[in-house]
Amino acid sequence: MPRIALVTCRPGPRVSVDRDLPVLVRALEDAGATASAEVWDDDGVDWGAFDLAVIRSTWDYSWRSAEFTAWAERCGKLTRLANPAPVVRWNTDKRYLGELAGAGVPTVPTSYAAPGEAPGLPDGHEYVVKPASGAGARFAARYTPGEHAIALRQVERMHAEGLTAMVQPYVRGIDTTGERALQFFGGRLLHASRKRAVLAPQAPYDERKVAHPGLEPWTPTAAELAVAERALAAVPDAPELLYARVDLVDGDDGRPRVMELELVEPNLFLWLHERSLPRVVEAVLEAAR
User: Fold this and answer.
1) CA pseudo-torsion sign 158, 162, 168, 171
2) Which residues sit opposite 244 in a β-bridge?
3) How many CA atoms lie within 13 A of 266 on its CB side?
4) Alpha-carbon radius of gyration of the chain
5) How far apart are CA 190 and CA 234, in angstroms?
6) In what helix (H) or strand (E) does residue 56 lie, and over which residues does it extend?
7) Alpha-carbon span 231 to 98, nearest angstrom
């Protein structure tokens, strides 16, 4: 009887509720495992007592990225951690988009400004500023060239907190075809979803956003699936991934590009794709064995 920890975080006003967590715990128990939800920064948890720890909804990590990655390193030495600690360290810093682009994966063009560096804010088109370590659209905002002064204040605020700023063009395809999330589990496509644009014009960067507005099931195209698979194949050192989510948008040429590659704590949206639950349970049990 495998012992499985589904890793989450403490509830709080800035943290979303994981609707899938109690459902997945119950389904694993029904399948014969011993499963429990455990808080990643709870010093009382004996991670070595579990056969597998699956990172699920550690949605406060972006406020404490260094602490979280250090925990992943420790946990990975005590039990099998999914996804592995090196993947966590690589994927919690969105500078990985540059590595994917260098490997030939179509991505949204991105520039970076670490603390002390001036960001290159574009003229002639809308753009997005957000932190290289972030989740749930935290500290993300959309600007026009006439709003550079406001954008620079946002960058200053992020730099004061030690965060690297990212600058991307606002991809207009989001307004028409939305953002598609292709979810993989156990090495295979599990399901896909589509959502509307998260960032509204002139919405303050420090305002809490609705992370997944208008979410609906989606059938991925062959082109979307091909880009997602190229992105996963480009992850360094070819790790064994229990789960992955590839978020795609259409570029100006109408072709899909990677917006983000979620390998740490992607929302599974099982409440929207109830038929996927047995496959997730099967893959988790196989990983625990």
Assistant:
1) negative
2) 184
3) 24
4) 19
5) 20
6) strand 52-57
7) 12
Read off the pLDDT of residues 200-239 as tens digits, 9 standing for 90 and up: 777 777 777 677 889 999 999 999 999 999 999 999 987 8
DSSP category for residue 44: T
The helix or strand, by DSSP H or E, that contains position 81, with its residue range, turns out to be strand 80-82
| Residues 33/283, Cβ–Cβ less than 8 Å | no
More confident residue, 36 or 207: 36
pLDDT in tens, 66-94: 999 999 999 999 999 999 999 999 999 99
DSSP H helices in the chain? 21-30, 65-78, 85-91, 96-102, 148-160, 173-177, 222-233, 277-288
Of 135, 126, 151, 165, whose CA–CA distance to 68 is shortest? 135
Structure tokens at 267: 């929302």
Q: Which residue has the tokens 């062959």?
A: 222
- Which residues are catalytic, by number? 208, 245, 262
Compute the mean pLDDT over every residue in the chain, rounded to the nearest whole number. Answer: 93
Q: 3-state DSSP call for residue 61? A: helix
Q: Could you tell me which of 80, 36, 43, 88 has the C-alpha nearest to residue 265?
A: 88
**Helix (H/G/I), strand (E/B), else coil: 227:** helix
Express each pLDDT in 140-198 by its tens digit.
Answer: 899 999 999 999 999 999 999 888 999 999 999 999 999 999 999 999 999 999 999 88
Residue 209: what pLDDT?
A: 67
